[in-house]
Fold:
Amino acid sequence: HRLQVLTMELWGVPNVNITGNARPPFENVTRVEGFEAWRKLVKLVRVRVEIRKLELCDRVRRPAECRKLPDVPHALESWDTDVREFIEAGGRPLSYDEKKMALINIVPEQIRADIMLRLYMFPDALPNSPQAEQDECFAKLRSALHKQIELSIQVQAMNKSAGPVNNVDDNPTDNWGPEGEQQPADDWSEP
Structure:
């Protein structure tokens, strides 16, 4: 008798909460089959989680490139959100190398080569090191990149407000290319 009461209660809880596409499979289960109703619902949730993980996989591992430097901070925040949601959906945390490659893909192409050349200044996490150590190494790398990008955006804004430079040779620190896009910066140092 207790098992019948339990199975009816298991059916009753989702009965008042299920809506949308999950409702028809639930309604196809009789009231005395609460365990079967829960099995179908869990199966639906699991399939949706797998689909979400697949949707996020490419965005996490190969994020879209920013065309302009001022777009990078927002793109990094969006990427952080995708990584968090990917892990919450059951994906495995990214290694230091995977995060580093994703970070390189996000920055505009005109500064990508410079970033890659300067990465040697940051200690790499060993491939088999604990996740916490890999995360710490990446946080240092990302912090330096973020600092450099913020400074570059400020310099870009100052250069736009100051007007064009008459002679490039008069300004040896000018790192600006065509259409105000930033060229590789000269100072990348670990914070």
